[in-house]
């Protein structure tokens, strides 16, 4: 399969992207309906508030404990994986990760890969980097397959094609898949996709997957999915390459259980998913071809995660288990969708993790894409304080790092000398009672000269205008 060029949306154009999205009535209606549905399904599984808080406390404790011992657990994971015959690779950047994939593919003479769902592979733009070397990567998750045919990015980390209607998908299949008639029957559309993908599972020499959890003590990879494509990608091809971020490790298999329960209920409102794949290495001597791949590789990606890890204030960002609940409950995401963000991870979680992956310079507007209503933190199954992290990133985008703190990539890239000067003047005025009284008195008497345009404030609000008489003056008159 030859891919269409990726339709890339630059996060630097976020504000312009949002204006386009808000004007799209169909998009807004589709996302509102989808978010309401997902919220209702999740609420049905967490109707006991106390029970949810107790389980969330366990999940948060597991993630914090794992992160507190991250270097040690990663080393133990590598040791135990290698003992099971797994090849472990470390990649600091997307370029490093793609080079590892390319080297493996070229060593096996592979011209094709079949992929299960993996947001980290989206993060490194694996499909398009491999295509530059003549290697086709076919998405086998139905939602990912649809957005791949359309040449788009996923608009949601759990439901990649949530922004597409069945009419759009029907037209896409008719255009892109040979000998495919137009049909709006959902079951028929799924059957069409399955027919195309079945041959790929059998023929592709390399299967690619993500990883939901890694267990250090046992050298185990855990993969959660609903369609069965993940199991096909990890067992049928002769070579399996898994890729994930370095933060996904836990110490014991028992620690996976509360996280799994939180993940499935928070993501899709399911008690359990259809498939829970537990991978413990390539097939052993004496096992048949259907017992797993002959060769198994794990690519562990940094890509800015150590930047978040080194600062205790930002480390909670790495607690995320990629359930998407924060997106499903975010009023901003529900109105603009995922593509407007221009990043692999949209919504609240994308707004706090993308500045670490891409730097603050191109993502400086994303932390402002929040009303700070707190819905994201309220539903987060592992207790990430998202509003607090958004505020810290807003500050980092406009100010230099504090003494003793290493700067973030792109720190202070949004610094504005005019704004800094205005705040400095405001501080001086408020620190001097006499100056404050004089200036506010003048403001009351000259209120008629208030300008109708007040920078960004009046873009959506009426102009600020001083009252005719100040509070001090009125209290003095009333004795």
From TrEMBL:
GO biological process terms held by the UniProt record: lactate metabolic process
Spans traversing the lipid bilayer: none
Key words of the record: 4Fe-4S, Electron transport, Iron, Iron-sulfur, Metal-binding, Repeat, Transport
MF terms (GO), sorted A to Z: 4 iron, 4 sulfur cluster binding; metal ion binding
Annotated ranges, domain 4Fe-4S ferredoxin-type: 310-334, 360-390
Classification via InterPro entries: 4Fe4S_Fe-S-bd (IPR017896), 4Fe4S_Fe_S_CS (IPR017900), FTHF_cligase-like_sf (IPR024185), Helical_ferredxn (IPR009051), LUD_dom (IPR003741), LutB/LldF (IPR004452), LutB_C (IPR024569), NagB/RpiA_transferase-like (IPR037171)
Official protein name in the record: Iron-sulfur cluster-binding protein
PANTHER family, A to Z: LACTATE UTILIZATION PROTEIN B (PTHR47153)
Source species of the chain: Sphaerotilus sulfidivorans
Pfam families, per database record: Fer4_8, LUD_dom, LutB_C
């Amino acid at each position: 399969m030859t891919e269409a060029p990726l339709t890339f949306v630059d996060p630097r154009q976020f504000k312009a992207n949002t204006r386009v999205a808000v004007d799209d009535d169909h998009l807004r209606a589709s996302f509102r309906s989808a978010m309401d549905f997902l919220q209702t399904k999740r609420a049905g599984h967490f109707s006991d508030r106390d029970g949810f808080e107790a389980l969330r406390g366990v999940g948060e404790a597991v993630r914090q404990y794992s992160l507190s011992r991250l270097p040690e657990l990663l080393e133990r994971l590598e040791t135990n994986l290698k003992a099971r015959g797994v090849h472990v690779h470390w990649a600091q950047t997307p370029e490093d990760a793609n080079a590892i994939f390319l080297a493996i593919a070229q060593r096996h003479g592979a011209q094709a890969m079949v992929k299960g769902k993996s947001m980290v592979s989206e993060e490194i733009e694996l499909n398009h980097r491999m295509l530059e070397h003549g290697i086709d990567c076919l998405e086998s998750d139905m939602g990912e397959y649809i957005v791949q045919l359309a040449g788009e990015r996923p608009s949601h980390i759990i439901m990649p094609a949530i922004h597409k209607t069945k009419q759009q998908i029907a037209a896409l299949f008719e255009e892109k898949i040979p000998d495919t008639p137009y049909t709006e029957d959902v079951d028929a559309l799924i059957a069409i996709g399955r027919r195309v993908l079945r041959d790929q599972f059998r023929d592709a020499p390399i299967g690619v997957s993500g990883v939901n959890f890694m267990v250090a003590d046992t050298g185990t990879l855990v993969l959660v999915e609903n369609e069965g494509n993940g199991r096909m990608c990890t067992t049928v091809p002769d070579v399996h390459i898994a890729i994930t971020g370095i933060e996904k490790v836990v110490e014991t298999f028992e620690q996976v259980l509360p996280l799994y329960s939180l993940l499935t209920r928070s993501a899709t409102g399911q008690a359990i998913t259809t498939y829970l794949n537990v991978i413990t290495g390539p097939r052993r001597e004496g096992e048949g071809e259907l017992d797993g791949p002959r060769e198994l590789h794990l690519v562990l990606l940094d890509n800015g995660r150590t930047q978040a890890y080194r600062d205790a204030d930002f480390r909670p960002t790495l607690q995320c288990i990629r359930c998407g609940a924060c997106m499903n409950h975010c009023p901003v995401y529900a109105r603009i969708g995922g593509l407007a963000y221009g990043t692999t991870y949209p919504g609240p979680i994308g707004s706090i993790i993308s500045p670490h992956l891409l730097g603050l310079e191109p993502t400086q507007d994303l932390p402002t894409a929040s009303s700070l209503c707190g819905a994201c933190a309220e539903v987060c199954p592992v207790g990430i304080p998202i509003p607090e992290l958004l505020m810290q990133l807003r500050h980092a985008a406009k100010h230099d790092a504090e003494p003793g703190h290493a700067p973030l990539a792109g720190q202070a890239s949004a610094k504005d000398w005019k704004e800094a000067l205005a705040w400095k003047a405001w501080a001086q005025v408020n620190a001097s009672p006499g100056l404050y009284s004089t200036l506010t008195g003048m403001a009351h008497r000259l209120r008629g000269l208030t300008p109708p345009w007040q920078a960004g404030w009046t873009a959506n609000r009426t102009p600020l205008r001083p009252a005719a008489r100040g509070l001090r003056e009125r209290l003095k008159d009333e004795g």
